[in-house]
Amino acid sequence: MKALIISDSHGWQRELKEIVDRYRTEVDIIIHCGDSELDRDNEALTGVKVVKGNCDFGDDFEEEIIETVEATSIYVTHGHLYNVKMTTVPLTYRAEEKQADIACFGHSHIATTFEQNGIIYINPGSIKLPMGKRIRTYCICERTDDKTTVTFFEKDGVRVEDMIYEFTV
C-alpha cells in the first residue's frame, strides 16, 4: 500500500494539483487531511480523499473518513475536533475506536509521525503554512508485509533526508 498524504494547503490550487499529479499514477490512495479551502469539484482534488478542516466551510467533506487499501485501515480527520495542537490523546482514542492501522491528521501544520499501541500516526505538515521546521511538506506512506515507511518531502518534491521513518508492522 502506498499513500500520498497532504494537509493544510489553504486555498492553493496549482501547487496542490502539481503534487497530486506528480504521484497520481504511483500511489494507491491520495489523502488530504483538511483545510484545503476548496470545493469538492475543484480540479486539484480530483481523485483525492478529503476531510473537512476548521477552515473548510459548507458540507463538501466529511469530518472523518476511514478507507481500506490492501488490507490497511486508514483513518483520516483534520484534528481540530480532537485538540491535536495541545495533545494527541483524544485522537489516539478515536483511532483505536476505529481500529485503524494508520491515522492521518493535520491542523497543527507540524510534520510528524509516531507509533502508539500499534497504530501509526501521520501529520504531513502543511504545503503552504508550515510550523515547526518551517519546511513546506507532504509525505508518502508505504506499507509492506513487515514495515511501514513514512517519507516527508518538500513542496517541490525534494525528500527531507532527516524525515524518513520506518516502523515495524
From TrEMBL:
Q: Under which EC number(s) is this enzyme classified?
A: 3.1.4.-
- Kindly indicate whether the keyword Secreted belongs to this entry: no
The protein's required cofactor(s) are namely: a divalent metal cation
InterPro entries on file: Calcineurin-like_PHP_lpxH (IPR024654), Metallo-depent_PP-like (IPR029052), Phosphodiesterase_MJ0936/Vps29 (IPR000979)
- Positions the record marks as coiled coil are none
Q: Which family does it belong to?
A: Belongs to the metallophosphoesterase superfamily. YfcE family.
The protein here is known as Phosphoesterase
Name its species: Halalkalibacter suaedae
